[in-house]
């Protein structure tokens, strides 16, 4: 099965620096196949026959041993990334005019009820729950006025890892090539 491991908070703002080549080699050392990293923010594509519940703790433990600090990951299958991409409108982009982020959720908050726990201004932003993720779309001129910036101060924020829609669409392309 094809997977992508999405690491939370590595190589962001000069903190928790992790060389991608070393991360790739760590995955290969775990016996994972066809390992590829994509950009420096902690996206690792690979193949394995084991289930998510077996792979996540294996990878997290190996990471802590290899790099000396713990990091949580979200594992998604190629099928789940494809489903998320299909359900996001094609005109939701990440460019000079709009910002679209996919917030991958840990199981603790992965349900539709998460929409009731975030501040959304429907006049400025569109937010959708898709199994495994919240998708947040807003015009660039309104980013600082939307609820997305308030999310950082909530207890939900540590239970997600965020990628922009361009990255998610590229991951989908790589997983399905």
Structure write-up:
The structure is a single chain. This protein has 177 residues and is of the alpha+beta class. It folds into 2 domains: 2-78, Alpha-Beta Plaits (2-Layer Sandwich), CATH 3.30.70.1280; 83-164, bacterial protein sp0830 like (Alpha-Beta Plaits, 2-Layer Sandwich), CATH 3.30.70.1260. It is 27% helix and 27% strand. It is built from 4 helices and 8 strands, in the order E-H-E-E-H-E-H-E-E-E-E-H. Strand 6 (125-130) and strand 7 form a beta hairpin. The protein starts with a strand and ends with a helix.
Keywords:
4 helices, Alpha-Beta Plaits, 4-stranded antiparallel sheet, 2 domains, 177 residues, alpha+beta
Tell me what portion of residues adopts beta-strand conformation: 25-35%
Helix content: 25-40%
CATH superfamily of the largest domain: bacterial protein sp0830 like
Taking all residues together, what is the mean pLDDT?
A: 94
One letter per element, helices H and strands E, the order comes to: EHEEHEHEEEEH
Q: What is the total number of structural domains?
A: 2
| Biggest sheet statistics | 4 strands, antiparallel
| CATH architecture assignment of the largest domain | 2-Layer Sandwich
Supply Rg: 16 Å
Q: Tell me how many strands there are.
A: 8
Cα distance, first to last residue? 13 Å
Discrete helix count: 4
Low-confidence stretches: none
Described by its quaternary structure, the protein is single chain
Broad CATH class of the largest domain: Alpha Beta
- Structural class based on helices, strands and sheet pairing: alpha+beta
Q: Briefly note the CATH topology name of the largest domain.
A: Alpha-Beta Plaits
**Order of strands in the sheet with most strands:** 2-3-1-4
């Amino acid at each position: 099965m094809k997977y992508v491991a999405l690491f939370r908070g590595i190589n962001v703002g000069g903190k928790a620096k992790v060389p991608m080549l070393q991360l790739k080699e760590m995955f290969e050392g775990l016996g994972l196949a066809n390992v590829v990293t994509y950009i420096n923010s902690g996206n690792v594509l690979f193949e394995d026959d084991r289930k998510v519940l077996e792979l996540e703790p294996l990878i997290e433990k190996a990471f802590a041993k290899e790099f000396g600090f713990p990091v949580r990951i979200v594992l998604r299958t190629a099928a789940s990334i494809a489903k998320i991409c299909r359900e996001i409108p094609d005109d939701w982009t990440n460019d000079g005019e709009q910002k679209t982020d996919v917030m991958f959720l840990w199981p603790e908050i992965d349900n539709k009820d998460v929409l009731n726990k975030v501040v959304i201004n429907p006049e400025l932003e569109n937010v959708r729950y898709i199994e495994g993720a919240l998708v947040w779309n807003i015009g660039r001129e309104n980013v600082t006025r939307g609820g997305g910036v308030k999310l950082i101060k909530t207890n939900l924020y540590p239970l997600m890892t965020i990628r922009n829609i361009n990255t998610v669409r590229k991951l989908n392309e790589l997983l399905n090539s």
